[in-house]
Specification:
Elements lengths: L1 H15 L3 H17 L3 H7 L2 H13 L2 H8 L2 E10 L2 E8 L2 E7 L2 E8 L2
Antiparallel strand pairs: 1-2, 2-3, 3-4
Helix pairs in contact: 2-3, 3-4
Amino acid sequence: MKKLIMPVLTMFVVVGCSAPIDEATEVAQKACIADKNSDVDSLADYMNAEMFEQNKMIHESADPQLKKMLKMLNCDVKNTEESGDGFVIHFKKHNSYEVKEINGDYRVVGENYF
């Protein structure tokens, strides 16, 4: 019984912990999908206050043509790279996002245009 407990506990520890680069990539991808779908409420969960306010204004004032263009964006991650105290996540067909840890959570803090 004792031999079984250690591997099971180890599995929970490994599964429960993800690498910072994975967490940052996941946050960026969720923000990208929210941006693509003009889901302003979800954007608030993935962006810092400044980025959220900028994106909120864009989505609220966007004409239907812009929203159609956003729907065509592809949020598949091309690659993620470390950058100073954060990460830059590059997508196949979307602007790149700069993600940093803020108060223990990863948030999109910047955007690099195509």
